[in-house]
Specification:
Distance between the termini: 8 Å
Number of helices: 14
Number of strands: 0
Radius of gyration: 20 Å
Strand content: under 5%
CATH topology of the largest domain: Rna Polymerase Sigma Factor, Chain: A
CATH class of the largest domain: Mainly Alpha
């Protein structure tokens, strides 16, 4: 799975006519598509068996063509909403699953003016994005509370110096990337300062002072597919984009 920030870079390559980039991007994002479709439908689906996944893949490809930076949302969040819309359209045409038929999503049908549809879609995107952002913030706040961290703490402990911020973000990335370290941390709720210091070369005092920031960023990186809006603001170390 591509890091959240890399999605937009891939989209630009694809829009410049790189068909191989599109093919590779679609393949790499299949786990994201699967997770999004299963969550929306509430079903355990299987590639090659269930129509919903095929519809999700087609909708994701459609989202690539329609996406614009001016939308003000991360591509993956945008694509998720396109998938929702197309799935609701599918259920509506099949005249089944009333839970989804009642969803207030714009559906383009014969006889509907294209301009009206675009306006309807833009309104839906704005409202859905606002709702999703609010849900993300609430869920992330609950996650932080498990580790004794509040948003107020983050504001106070966020590093102001660029080099310090980069060092702490590197530590957070390594914590999220190393499964053994992450498991150890989640089990005892204590930051593995010695190991992180050895891996990153960041001093122990710096790690201790930035403990809450490191924890918050590591949790966000580890679950960035669940927090697409928040993760879109992450500034990851240049050499860390190999994926987790």
């Amino acid at each position: 799975m591509f890091p959240v920030q890399d999605a937009e870079a891939e989209i630009k390559k694809i829009k410049h006519g790189d068909s191989l980039a599109r093919e590779n991007f679609l393949e790499s994002c299949k786990p994201f598509i699967y997770k999004a479709v299963c969550k929306f439908t509430g079903k355990n689906l299987e590639w090659g068996r269930d129509d919903e996944l095929a519809i999700g893949l087609i909708a994701f490809n459609e989202a690539i063509d329609r996406f614009c930076d001016d939308f003000g949302v991360p591509f993956l969040a945008y694509s998720r909403n396109v998938m929702k819309s197309r799935l609701v359209d599918h259920y509506r045409r099949e005249n089944r699953n009333t839970k989804f038929i009642k969803a207030q999503l714009p559906l383009q049908e014969d006889g509907i003016n294209n301009v009206e549809f675009v306006k309807s879609w833009e309104k839906f995107l704005e409202e859905e994005s606002a709702r999703e952002r609010e849900e993300e913030i609430k869920e992330f706040e609950e996650l932080l509370n498990i580790y004794g961290i509040s948003f107020e703490d983050l504001v106070k402990c966020s590093p102001r110096h660029r080099d310090t911020r980069r060092s702490l973000m590197l530590a957070a990335w390594e914590l999220a990337k190393e499964s053994s370290l992450l498991k150890k941390f989640m089990n005892n709720k204590k930051l593995p300062l010695v190991e992180l210091g050895e891996i990153t070369g960041v001093g122990r005092k710096t790690l201790e002072r930035g403990r809450k920031y490191i924890i918050a960023m590591a949790l966000l990186i580890n679950r960035r597919e669940d927090f697409l809006y928040l993760a879109s603001h992450l500034k990851l170390p240049v050499n860390s984009l190999g994926g987790i």
